[in-house]
Amino acid sequence: MLGSRPRLAEAVRRAAVVTHGKPETIGDAVDRLEQAARAAGVELVDPDAAEPDLAVVLGGDGTMLRALHAHLGTHVPVFGVNFGRVGFLTSVESDALEDGVTRVFAGDYRVVELCTLTIDLNGEIQPAINDAVATSSRLGRMVQLGWEIGGEDLGTQPCDGMICSTPSGSTAYNLSNGGPVLMWGIEAMAITFVAPHSLHARPLVVPRGLTLRITNRTADVPVTVLADGHAIGELEPDDHIEVGIGDQRSRLALLPEVTFFARYHDVFP
Fold this sequence. Notes:
Layout: E1 4-7, E2 14-19, H1 23-26, H2 29-40, E3 43-45, E4 54-59, H3 61-70, E5 78-82, E6 92-93, H4 97-105, E7 109-121, E8 124-128, E9 131-136, E10 143-149, E11 152-159, E12 161-165, H5 173-176, E13 188-194, E14 204-207, E15 212-216, E16 223-227, E17 230-235, E18 240-254, H6 260-267
Parallel strand pairs: 2-3, 2-4, 4-5, 5-6, 5-18
Antiparallel strand pairs: 1-7, 7-8, 7-18, 9-12, 9-16, 10-11, 10-15, 12-13, 13-14, 15-18, 16-17
């Protein structure tokens, strides 16, 4: 698999536990995890503990995203047990928790390194694991977004917004707006318009090394900038952001048989 690296010989001795904070959803999952950890001789620690060998997520894609953010720029891979609705980034379903974590604790997993984005907003750099979005700050109001790639002006597009997504984020908001799905491991970002007022606006895939500049060309409507679904600022008229592929990579731990296409087939039949 592109971007994958075998990790089949390193047993886990210390694992951080991350949950989505909904006891009614995960039930006795923490107790089950603790029993499996004791049997494997693995120490479980808090999410913010220093230098775990691995982070185990009990939750869905939102919790996976939070854990990947927390360990961005470290060596720590994140392994997911799905207690969410979709769980595209997770490796096993909730009923297979014991078998999955026992295998992972024994070192039977691999790591896929996923590229991330950097968002430059007024000189402040923000990372994004899934996507950067520029969208109208006023519900129901269209905006005019100017866009440039690699310094080349591509004009102004009337729309509700623009999505710039990583491969891991391409199956989220990007996909729901008709954007392309990018396989894990590809060093590229997908650019997709939200409700473009045009018959010719098409999604675009851009490789590492080219920066997207988005400028608010709307005279009377600000543009909200989101990083992984969280607002990080607004663009007044003529303000801009720049988005590109960053140097940091998030690290996704998977059982050896769990591939991108297997997850894609299971989640989007």
